[in-house]
Write the structure tokens for this entry.
Amino acid sequence: MNPSGERKALASQFDVIKLGHLDSDQFTVILGFLIATKVFLTLPSYITKRIGTGAWLTIAFSGVLAAVGLWGWVGWCKATGNLGFVPSVRLTLGRVMGDLTVLAVTVYFVLVTSFSVRVFAGGAVIGLLPEFPIEILIVIVVISSIYAAWLGLETVARAAIFFYPLIVLTIVIVGLGSYRIFDIRHLHPVLGMGFPSILREAAVQFGIYGGIAMAAIFKSYLRNPDQLPKAAFTGLSVATLFMMASVILVSAILPYPENTRHVIALGVIARTVYLGRFLQKIEALFTFTWFFASAVHASTCYMVTLVLLCQLMNTRTYRPLVPGVGLLTFGIAALPTSIHAAGRLLSAVYTYLGSFSVVLGPVLYLVAKVRGTEKAAARISQTLGALIQSPEYSEDTPGQLSRPQGEEQP
Amino acid sequence: MLAAFLGAGICGCYGRHELEQLSLVTILGVDKGTHRKLLATAAIALPRKMRSGDTMGSGGTSTSFIVSVECDSLLDGLGRMTTMTSRRVTTAHTQVVILGEDLAKEDAGVILDVFSRNLEFRRNTLVAVCQGSASEFIRNFSVPEETEPSDYLVKLIDSCHQELGICPFTSVYDFLVAYGTGQIEPWTPYLSLTSPIESIGGQPEEADSGEGQQESKAGDTPDKIIKLAGSAVFKKRGPKMQMVGTLDPIETMAANILSGNFSRGFLSIVMPRAPQRMAALVFQHCSVTRKTSIDGDRLNVTFKVRLTASMEETTAREIELSLGYHSEIVEQAERTLESLLSSVFTKLTAMESDILGLGMTIHGHFRTWPQWKEFDWPSKFRHTVATYDVKMFVFTSGYADSPPTPE
């Protein structure tokens, strides 16, 4: 193969779909949404059921473990430079292992999207719209989210930036509006089921931070890659604090074990908000804004899924995949027979695939260090950079360049 | 796009419940049933009549009508009521649930579950217990001031709680917390019916008699209105929540002070050096700190009570003016209050009901939930030893200015 053919083959293998760029604030916010939106789902009840009043400490310790995972992801991102996620994994683990690993991460995001949508729709039906068909709610969230994903990564990021102040504001109003029944003493005994239980559960539950893989998946779409560590750790910290605050709010208003009886605990608290005689029974307003959180979460998950599938298939556009992915997630979301079943499935996904996603970062980083992937990645980046600068390069059709007539596919 | 989709669903067009097709229950009374488990009584609002401002009439009030049915559960009861009304009966705007005394003594917990599950039942609905039957109570009270009976009831409870401190402010939420945690027991306002004209010369006013009724109506005075008789104290016994006793209004004020929920109220004291004379101290501010310690199986609690007050009324004009006498009054007030607090605490420990929420303070001594459960607070409460550190700051004792001397 001549040098030009090699370069074209390289383009085919390592160049990835272009999606525009995120700035660091947008990156922080969508990572925050991806991790923290689960407070509007079953997380506060489920985690309190397992650890009692020490649930918020479990989230804190899980956050520390997730920070170790994120450190690995960030280190690996630095080692693999500005290459796309899937090519970087392939470069680190080899083609077969790399593709299998990416597939597992893709499955994680597909399942998280589906079950999260199902749980949120189930909660809305139980707490707000008891006569509304749940399938229609699922369709609404799926279509809205996937439409945002269809419009592109920057659209998803802008929607996240637009809605997050509103969502934070509603949580603050819910907290302040229910101050009459907020009692910090309900957080005693501080250690819940005991310190060993907290640590044990933290080791099991850190999968709830599985979304941190997004930091690496979107690494080639960051406007300033140097800001990735800061943006990612800020997103993780904010999300952790938000989840801790939500669990504390739930525990201080609905004391253990009363809070474990409610599937969507924040929704129950929203029902208790009393701002005045003519400003009560306004939970619909809060839940309405939480729809946006769910939709942004789902949009981000869709975007991640589409990026992974595109990079796996080495296509230049993700839009043909959108209907299929949408139908797939709707189908999976419609499968669980109840919100409890969906909650359990979501919990299992976090525990196994989420933990895998967190651990994967440090593992990739260690493998990259051992195999010297950093140098190979730098060399490929340099070649790819030169190719991109060359006049024969077209970002829309590098696949065609890789298979010119008479040339063997690498 | 999301807003457009959601707009179709959340605006209520789907599965809508039109307001003019609903019968709004404002007060719900629950008693033990004779043939079925419960007797549910509902005061259903008549919004059209509220506009006219007619506040009194038969059946308690002309702005509502009363329906009473025997039922197996509250939802069953609402269903049975709907068969008697032109509209669907809903509790979405119920402000107060009144428990009959018999039901409260047997098990008030039977009505709670629906508040956790059904969207139309709200946890911030107030709960009260009435003397005798809730059905009789709802049917017989008149509403002299408000157009809506539930408004009257809520304002009565609120003002007695806020201004006099002689009433607890208890919602279904408090019951549910008490049910779930075991760190606090619920207590509710205890209501009775009375004639608005107090008894004279030790003889009870015969408001029920025909003659009395005629006189009352002639003077636009209602037959019977609600009177706060104090508070009803509950205790969780296994799966049941049972009323175990009552506190009178003054005892209720003391319990409010001990639980830290007291802000305003007044206390009558015997004047030092003149036991035949009384004085009224009005409290303006109260802060209570509870310090607890565990010594083996023995529990100690110290109530550190700090109050500011002013003496606003005495039954005498000839009062000695000296700083020493002022101190005696303060000491007398502190002794009176401490004695009241002590007697109420003893009464509560005898009832074995921790309405003060001491469990919420005690469990701060434990690091883990298993340790706390093993400690078994409900069985320990009756052995708790209380000490009191009461300090009162009387700002205006009445001695700052000399009484005016007629020229």
